[in-house]
């Protein structure tokens, strides 16, 4: 098994700021070789809830890449969401630059709220860079903080540490450097096999349309960034192009989830 | 006496047999007036006329300190003027220091200039604004007497001019005795230009030079007729070469950089006599351009293929022929270009037009008639845009704390802002200070703070960011192109979007040679020379001007003539065929044709409203067609018509063109379209909301580039009345969107719309099928096609059966 850290040379990735990967080693499930390619895909129907998603099997677990950009693990009633970057506008204002529209968080919250209302998850896992910097949490507007608290109420909420926000969170929920449940593990930047991660903000271009996307292969699932003021990294660029296997799929977000072989 | 020239200068001038032209003498006589506008043709000694009063006042042994500021829209012009001005000054032995200061000036020189300014400083609007942003601006400009604005007609047409006038208003407050002189080419409304120029928008005296003899201007007869479509003019290469051989120096103007590149290459391929010919345009590296300029000035070139970069100012010596390739779009600009053939004052300028396609033949005929009738076009300029004012407020805060009342008085002293309401000013100040959002989220991080009645920067360090972003020229994102290898020669720039389409091995044109794309290194495109291969064409961001209303009206009138005398036979036949198969567009009516072609339902609207308005019409109509289930797929707009294609035919265009509903649609549609987003981006950059990403500083990943589109969408949803959205709407209405021209067209037409349904493509529509710049509609039809594409990709990857 490779313990090599790949992809940490991404722009802006401060690898040094990372808490070391703790916990038990991950046992890689699923069989090796080409046969795997067929084994991981399940069907394209998704949960049938709301906007249609793309369903697939990953390390024996059935997952749905939702058109909104969240990942839904129906059997565990777990919702997984990538880089939220709350507080980005305020951070830019803080350093004396342009005063960006302060509606970024409510924009993001509204979309997250829609998915949570629809799916009613028992567990929500935020895959890191949930806050744009360690102080972002302290700068939250009251109304935004209250909205977030309402979404968190009554469910397990896990904040995975990211490279932007390694510190503890006072909002409730649990802060962990990585999380493992059944066969799957969750961390901010993909390191080992069997992981669900964020960080790279992947996007893909198909038929002239560029969309944030999931990247899925036998070894890893990388989620698109969910935050409103986040850009994207074209999946044809390194490190994404190196990180993903030859059989990788890109699942485009938008009005409905669409899977295509990952553009190269 | 002020108007007397110093003796040494007078001797030097008469020693060379120079006598003052009457307009130069008049400018000298009016030297004491607060503002004067000089209108003179190129070659009329305009610049000297502007500087004579300065030389008179400074005399032989002037006291130190800045006396005259010269501002030009072109960096190259400042260097050229500095050189030209030094000749008489040094020749007469005057101890006058003349220096230029632009973005190209070294940091050391710039520092010295701030500490010890020359007598005459030549600069650009942006460099002037930057100087004014420094804390020591009052000291730098202390004692300034005169400011000379060159190419005032060109500046008045852009936001750079608005910014310059705000800068002058600031200078005027520092030095109330400051006098202004504007130098301009021929314009259609000199009084409007005078109001733009003079303090307080009050206008000023206008001095008119003798316009000179009538130009010798005609269409160039070519052995091969122009093609149906395209803008290259390559059919005319042998004829143009022939002309070059018969003249001393020929300037060959093109409307876009890409066209200039293609034409230059074609010219070079057939240049069997080896005539020295150069190329000059804004996407070429500075070194390349300077080489061509120097060769031209030294008389080493017989011709230069160029774009608007050679439109202005610089005197290129023995130019005796101007060739315009492609339709002139605008009579005023054509007249100015013709004036470039100015080798002898008071000899007629000679110019030849080469229409690049059949539509342009008609436009050229109309333009020639307009030039002969001295009928100039131009749009009245609106009030100064507020995004430029927002930037000015930030610049003011960089230099010193200010009181709102004082700054308001100052900016209303600028012609374009003379009518600015206090409410609008306050909205801009509020935006600059707090972001101006309905949600007051930034109280603790305001950009400007009010303390002791004065507005100041909250964080002095933010001045650096503001200074870096001074200016109103918005770059499209470009990448530098270099020859591969150590110390590779810089060749120029290409658009990032174009670079993204290249894969190693692709070839494109740059500086007239075919180069091969090797790869991207640190935001630089690396290429090798690759002669002899057919290039993939570079898509340059050359500005596309819209054909003026005057020219469009003249074209429509021309269509009505019975046999089209004066129109070349090939084009007359084309028009006759159109008259036979369908009909020709008429003044006061609107022709619409619908027919199936290429498996799609096609509709052409011949609005003759100019490129921007026709584009907006395309966006508005496709939006309504989307709503009505007609599944439009895309459209393309030219100056003359909009072509829309889709899955369903349009049964009747009239309800879609209802002006009332179009106007209603405009507001809702302004919502999501690309033109608005592009306008918003430039407004947001100018107003200092986002920083212009610059090549070199740009990061390659996601961190730097969340798009301004997201900001636009967010603002629209949560703060629809925000100042920047208001500015975007105003700006778009008169600029890229140009809705005014659609309304004017529909008003003229009233309901006289002729919607013709045909079995097949018509002669007039045929060229549109080949037109580049097709804009896709991201509607239901696009989602259908995206589904199909995704399905096919999965199918090919052997994963098709897995799609549910």
From TrEMBL, chain A:
* Coiled-coil region: none
In terms of SUPFAM superfamilies, this protein maps to: Metallo-dependent phosphatases (SSF56300)
Gene3D superfamilies listed in its UniProt record = 3.60.21.10
Domain of life where this protein originates:
Bacteria
Q: Which GO terms describe its molecular function?
A: hydrolase activity
Q: Where is the Calcineurin-like phosphoesterase domain?
A: 77-179
Disordered as annotated region, ranges: 1-21
Q: What NCBIfam families does the annotation carry?
A: P_estr_lig_assc
Please report the name of this protein according to its UniProt entry: Putative phosphoesterase
* Native organism: Gemmobacter megaterium
Automatic annotation (TrEMBL), chain B:
Query: Which controlled-vocabulary keywords does the entry list?
Result: ATP-binding, DNA damage, DNA repair, DNA-binding, Helicase, Hydrolase, Isomerase, Nucleotide-binding
Question: What are the TM regions of this chain, as residue ranges?
Answer: none
* CDD domains in alphabetical order: DEXHc_LHR-like (cd17922), SF2_C_LHR (cd18796)
This entry's Gene Ontology molecular function terms read: ATP binding; ATP hydrolysis activity; DNA binding; helicase activity
Question: Has UniProt tagged this entry with the keyword DNA damage?
Answer: yes
Residue ranges annotated for the Helicase C-terminal domain, each copy included: 236-387
Q: Please give the name of this protein.
A: ATP-dependent helicase Lhr and Lhr-like helicase
Q: Which Pfam families match?
A: DEAD (PF00270), DEAD_assoc (PF08494), Helicase_C (PF00271), WHD_Lhr (PF19306)
Keyword Hydrolase tagged: yes
Q: What does UniProt list as this organism's lineage?
A: Bacteria, Pseudomonadati, Pseudomonadota, Alphaproteobacteria, Rhodobacterales
- Domain of life (superkingdom): Bacteria
Biological process terms from the Gene Ontology for this record are: DNA repair
Which family is this protein grouped under?
A: Belongs to the Lhr helicase family. Lhr-Core subfamily.
| Residue ranges occupied by any Helicase ATP-binding domain in the UniProt entry | 27-205
What InterPro entries does its record include?
Answer: ATP-dep_Helicase, DEAD/DEAH_box_helicase_dom, DEXH_lig_assoc, Helicase_ATP-bd, Helicase_C-like, Lhr-like, Lhr-like_DEAD/DEAH_assoc, Lhr_WH_dom
